[in-house]
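Dock flavin-adenine dinucleotide; give full complex structure.
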Amino acid sequence: MKRLVLLGGGHAHLGVLADLAERPLVGWDVHLVSPYRRQIYSGMLPGWVAGHYPIESCAIALDRLARNARARFHETAGRALNAADNEISCADGTRLNFDLLSIDTGPLPATDLLPGSLEHALPIRPIEAFVAAWPGLVDRMLSRCRRFDLVVLGAGAAGVELAFAARHRATVDGWSHVRITLVGSGAMPLEDAPPCARRQVARLLSQRGVTWLGDRRALGFAAGRIDFDQGPSQGFDACLVVTGTAAPAWPRAAGLATDEHGFIRVGPTLQSVSHPQVFAAGDVAAYPDERPKSGVYAVKAGPVLAGNLRAVCEGCTPRAWTPQKRALYLISTGNRHALAAWGPWSIGGDWVWKWKNRIDRGFVRRFGTTA
Ligand SMILES: Cc1cc2nc3c(=O)[nH]c(=O)nc-3n(C[C@H](O)[C@H](O)[C@H](O)COP(=O)(O)OP(=O)(O)OC[C@H]3O[C@@H](n4cnc5c(N)ncnc54)[C@H](O)[C@@H]3O)c2cc1C
C-alpha cells in the first residue's frame, strides 16, 4: 500500500477530503495531520467576535471529514520534513513516511517582525489560540469601569473586519467604556483594495466610532504600548495583532525550493518545483504568478489539488492551473453590513452582509460544522 499524507486541514485540503469521501483512492493509505480536530473558518471569525455566530457554527469537524474520506487522523502538528527520505516528523513524536505529501498548513503570524507582540498583545493566528483567549479579554473589558482601549494593529481586510466586529459587539452589549482604534501603515485602511472601498471603509469607521490611526508602521511592543517608526507611541489596554503573515521555517530547512519569504514554490500543477512528490496549496504556497494570500485562492486550489493528487496516485498526468487574477472580497463592516470589492469596484449594503452570510454558512455546512 502506498501512502498519501495531507499535512494541515486548510481550505484546499477540505476540498481534497471531500473528493476522497466521494471517491476513495484505491491502493493508497491516506493520513491527515492537524493540530486541531476542527478548522475554524476565518471568514466567519469576525462574525463570532461580533456575536453573530457561536464558535461551533464557524468550525468544520476535520476528524469527521477525515473519517468520511477514510483517512487516518493524527491530532498533532508537522514539525520537520526529511525530503530525501520522504518522512514527516510530528510534535507528538510520530514519524510518517509518505510516497506523496500535500501541504496546506496556512501561514504563521508575522510576529517575528514585532518584538514583544507575543508577550504584550494577542495575535490573530493561530486562530485557535485567539479563540481561546478572546473570552478572557472580554471579561477583562467587562470588569473595568473606566475607559478601556482596544487597539487593532493591521488594517488589511482581517483587521478592518475585526475592528468593526468589536465595535458592533461593544455597541450591542453596552460596553460604552470601550474605545476601539484601528492602526495601519497606509494613509487609509485596506491598502490593496480599490480606492472607493477604502473611502467607504474610512467613512464607516468614523460613523461607527472607530478611531483610525494611519501612516503608523509598528516597530514593537512594550507593556501597554506600541512603538512606531515615527510619531508618538500608542497606549492600549489590549491589542489584537493582524499585521500579515509569514512562512514556517521548516519547508526551507528541508531543502524545498521557496520564495524569498520562505513560502513553498510550486509549479502550475501545485507540485513543488524542487520535489515533485510534494504538493502545496493555500497561503503556504508561492504560485508561479503571485497571488494575494487569501482564503479565496486557497479554496479555489482545492478541486485542482484533489484532481492532481488523484492523477499522480493513479499514474496519470496532473493538470496545470492558473489561479484567477481577481477575487471577490466580502468585507463585513459590523451591524450586519458588508462591502463587496471586485477589481476596481465596490458596493456596500445590508444585502451584501446577507449574501456573505449565506456563502459562509454554506461553505462550512458543505464540509460539516461542529455545531
Ligand atoms: C479574521 C480573518 C478573516 C479573514 N477573512 C477572509 C475572507 O473573508 N476572505 C479571504 O479570502 N480570506 C480571509 N482571510 C485570510 C484567510 O484566513 C487565509 O488566507 C486562509 O486561511 C488561508 O488558507 P490556508 O488553507 O492556506 O490555511 P489555513 O486556513 O490557515 O489552514 C491551515 C491549517 O493547517 C493547520 N496547521 C498549521 N500548521 C500546521 C502544521 N505544522 N502541521 C499540521 N497542520 C498545521 C492549521 O491548524 C489549519 O488547520 C481572513 C483571515 C483572518 C485572520
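Observed: Residues 20 and 192 are 36 Å apart (CA to CA).
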